[in-house]
Amino acid sequence: MTGAGAAGARRAACVVGIDVGGTTLKGGVCDREAAIVHGERRPTARDDVDALVDGIVALAGDLAAEGRRRFEADGIAGVGLAVPGLVDETRGVALRAVNLPWRDLALAEVAGGRLGLPVLLCHDVRAAAAAEAALGAGRVADDFLFVAIGTGIGGAIVRGGQPFLGAHGRAGELGHIVVEPGGPRCACGASGCLEAIASAAAIERAYAAASGGCAGDGPSAREVAALVEADDPVAGKIWARAARALGAALADAVALLDPGLIVVGGGLAEAGAQLLDPVAAELAARSRLGPPPRMVAAELGADAGCRGAALLAWRALERGHMWVSDAPAAARGPGPA
User: Fold this and answer.
1) CA distances from 310 to 10, 76, 129, 255 (A)
2) How far is CA 126 from CA 173, 288, 308, in A?
3) Residue 94: which domain range?
4) In what order do the strands lie in the sheet with 76-83?
5) 83 DSSP β-pair partners
6) For 304, which of 15, 25, 126, 320 is 20 to 30 Å away at the CA?
7) Is there a contact between 25 and 45 (Cβ–Cβ < 8 Å)?
């Protein structure tokens, strides 16, 4: 990353935050408290990398235009992009994502050059964890483990209120802890990973297979949760397996990290006590070194990644640590249509 003027950031009223999901792009014009003053959602073009990048840049460009319209001269300071998978945040490179087609894509450089704005690239789960630390359920603890359970499963280790990257930007990959050796094949190439058993996608696949259907044709994970409430035996068995797997993975994480709190977010966390209670019970049963930390639901919901991207963008702008195009604005060509 190269320096982005902190003076310009101090004058600006807002940033654009975008959370790139496997099915949906969630974006917003965010003020200095990372509150969304205008938000938009669009489908993710996940089958082609050029179309995917075009969609991200188009959304960012439209949101930037909306920010300029609303705040006039104060305008947009920059863009925070939160993406899944392995991310080199220092170089602004999206390395690899299981559900998206890019490999070693210099997304901050590409987006910044096309938008003519400073761009920060960050990991989606760490962005959500940063938002929960500053604005949500993590405010009460300096050190906590954030777990996002959605299409996949991700984690982030928060220390002193800041997400911990690790030596290679891979810290917190809870979804790829093996909890059932020889279990279902995971998209990462291993077998029996937590993500292959307890993610929303895994629950949907398991129910479809158990009921004789095809993957993608059965009920959603939310509908499986409703079937559990209705005492459907197939749904109950799959749900219990997922809860056991989550409890096992969290027990390993707690033994290693000793977090003060566990914050659970992502779409599947909307099941609330139906999910958290059996997971907490499994975690307690596996805790041998002392009582487990308290487990709570995240507070920011589906906006956590977008708001976290905005929050991290503000911080990076103040430090002058964002990617900025070296080309003059006129040389960059027109922005997205």
Assistant:
1) 15, 11, 13, 32
2) 11, 28, 8
3) 6-124+305-332
4) 36-43, 24-30, 14-20, 76-83, 119-123
5) 123
6) 320
7) no
Which residue spans within the chain are E strands per DSSP? 14-20, 24-30, 36-43, 76-83, 86-88, 93-97, 100-105, 119-123, 144-149, 153-159, 162-164, 261-265, 294-297
176 with 76, same domain? no
Instruction: Answer yes or no: do 157 and 211 share one domain.
Output: yes
CB 176 within 8 A of CB 221: no
207/145 same-domain check: yes
> For 130-177, what is each residue's pLDDT tens digit?
999 999 999 999 899 999 998 889 999 999 989 998 888 889 999 999
DSSP-assigned letter for residue 161: T
- Token pair recorded at residue 7: 């003076």
Degrees to nearest 5, angle at CA 306 with 88 and 28: 125
Task: Note the pLDDT of residue 54.
Answer: 97
Tokens of 236: 């109950």
In Å, how far are 90, 204, 208, 262 from 217, measured between CA atoms?
41, 9, 7, 33
Question: What order do you get walking across the sheet with 100-105 strand by strand?
Answer: 86-88, 93-97, 100-105
Q: Which of 246, 253, 240, 244 is nearest to 289 (CA)?
A: 253
Q: For tokens 């639901």, name the residue.
A: 297
Q: What was the pLDDT predicted at 9?
A: 60
